[in-house]
Amino acid sequence: MLDLKFVREHPELVREDLRRRQRDPSLVDHLLEMDQRWRISFARQSDLRAGQNRRSEEVARKKKSGEDTSALQNELRQLSEQIREQNEQIHLQADSITRILEKLPNSLHHSVPEGTDESGNIRIRSGGSSPSFSFSPLPHWELAKHLKLFDLERSGKIAGSGFILYTGWGAKLERSLISWMIDFHCQHHGYRELFPPFVINRDTAYGTGKLPDFDNQMYRFQNSDLYLNPTAEVPVTALHAGETLQADTLPLYYVAYTACFRREAGAAGKDTRGLLRLHQFDKVELVKFVRPEDSYLELENLTSEAESIVAALELPYEVVELCTGEIGFSASKAYDINVFAPGVNKWLEVSSCSNCTNYQSRRLNMRFRNPQTGKLEFVHTLNGSGVALPRTVAAILENYQEMDGSVRVPRVLQPYLQVERIQPGS
Q1: Among 23, 25, 48, 117, which residue has the fewest nearby CB atoms (within 10 Å)?
Q2: What is the spatial distance between Cα 411 and Cα 415, in angstroms, rounded to a whole number?
Q3: Extended strands (E) in 244-392
Q4: pLDDT at position 170, please?
C-alpha cells in the first residue's frame, strides 16, 4: 500500500503512475478529497474535545464552590454526543481512505518501459538454443499421452478441467524438478528452504496485495476467511508479518515449494490444452526481504537466480522487462523469463521476478531499525518463480523429444530420475 503522506505530497507522481498503468488517475483526486474531509473532521473533533475539557474543569470548580452545574452538565452531554457522532464519521472517512488506497498500485520505477500490452515488453537477453529436428515436433500433450505421463480424462473425472493427474514418469519428473530446483537454490544461491501451508487467511492475502485486486481469481472456503494459496509468494512473504527484523539479519532469502490454485485458467479455447493453463499447478518460489537501498540490485540477482534454472535445464529462453501495461499490481519493476516450446511454437512464461519495494511490507507491517538513523523503516520484499513447473515440463518434453516418441532427460535431472531417457512402456 502507498503511504498516504506520500500521496499528499506527490499527487501528480501518483497520477502519472496510474496513467502509465492505464488506470484511472481520478482515484488520486477522490483520495485527496476524502483526506481533506477526514482532516477537517479530525480538527473538529479536537475542538470538541478541548471544549469538553474546559467545561469539565468548569464543572469541577463550580461543584467545589457549591454552584449549580446542571446547565454545564447538559452541555457536556451534548458535547459527548457530538464527539461520538464525529468519531463515527472519522472512522467511516478513514475506512473510505483505506478503500481508495487499496486500489492504488505500487509506484513504478522510472526505468519501466511504456507499453499497453506484452508487445511493449523489452527482451533483455536470451540463452540456450532451439534443437534442430528432422521431424515435426509434437506438442507436449501428445508426447505425454504416448508416454503415459499424465491422464487428462481421469483428472477431469476427479476434479474437472484445468487439473492434472500426473502418472508414472510424469509424476516422477514433476517431483524430481521440485527437489532439484530447491536443492539448486539452497546450494548455489544461499536460500533457506520452507514448506508453508497451502491455505492462507484473509490478512495474508490482503497484506501481500492479492486482495482486493486478485479476489475473483482465488478459491475461497465457504463460511471462512481462508483461501487456497493463489501463488507461492503469498505465504512466504507473510512469514514476518508484524515483526521488526534485526538489521544485521538482512537480507533474508527463502525458497519454498507450494501448490498454487487459481480459478481463472484462461479464456475458453485459448492456451488451455495440456499444461499451458491450469487451475492447480506446482511452483518453486524465491522470496527476499532486503534493505531499501539494495532492492533493485537484489531484483537483478533474483532474476539471474531464476534464469539459472532454465539455463541449467538447457532450454532456449529469454528474459524480458515488463512494460507499464503488463507489470503486476504490487510490483515496482519486474522481469519475466520465457522458455520456447517448439511443439506448440510458443514462448511460455515460467517465471516472473518482481521488486515490490515497501508496498507489501507496509500492509504487513514488516520493519527493521536502520542502524545509521536509528529509525524504523519498512523492509523491501521481492519474489520470483524459481520456477513454475507446468510450462517448464511442457518445454522439457517438447525440446527433448526424439523421433521415436521418447524424451531425453536433462542432464541435471538424471541423478534424480535415475534414467537418461523416458521411453514408451518404461
Answers
A1: 117
A2: 8
A3: 244-245, 252-261, 280-290, 317-321, 333-341, 346-355, 367-369, 376-378, 380-388
A4: 97
Query: What beta strand segments (E) does 218-312 contain?
Result: 226-228, 244-245, 252-261, 280-290
Residue environment code for 304-338, b if the CB has 16+ CB neighbours within 10 A, otherwise e: ebbbbbbebbbbbbbbbbbbbbbbbbbbbbbbbbb
pLDDT per residue as tens digits for the range 250-266:
999 999 999 999 997 55
Chain centroid, CA 220 distance in Å: 17
User: Which residue did the predictor score with more confidence, 53 or 425?
Assistant: 53
Q: Can you give the pTM of this predicted structure?
A: 0.92
Mean of pLDDT values over 49-71: 89
Of 231, 210, 142, the closest CA to residue 364 belongs to 210
Q: Is the pLDDT of residue 337 over 50?
A: yes
Contact 286, 306 (CB under 8 A): yes
Mean pLDDT to the nearest integer, 142-149:
96
Residue type, 355: N
CB 416 within 8 A of CB 182: no
Q: What is the pLDDT of residue 267?
A: 47
The three grid cell numbers given for residue 283, joined into one nine-digit string? 511452483
> What residue ranges define each of the domains in the chain, with the CATH number in brackets?
4-102 (1.10.287.40), 118-422 (3.30.930.10)
Contact call for residues 44 and 86 (beta carbons, < 8 A)? yes
- Residue pair 391/333 in contact by the 8 Å Cβ criterion: no
Query: DSSP for 315-354?
Result: --EEEEE--TTTS-TT-SEEEEEEEEETTTTEEEEEEEEE
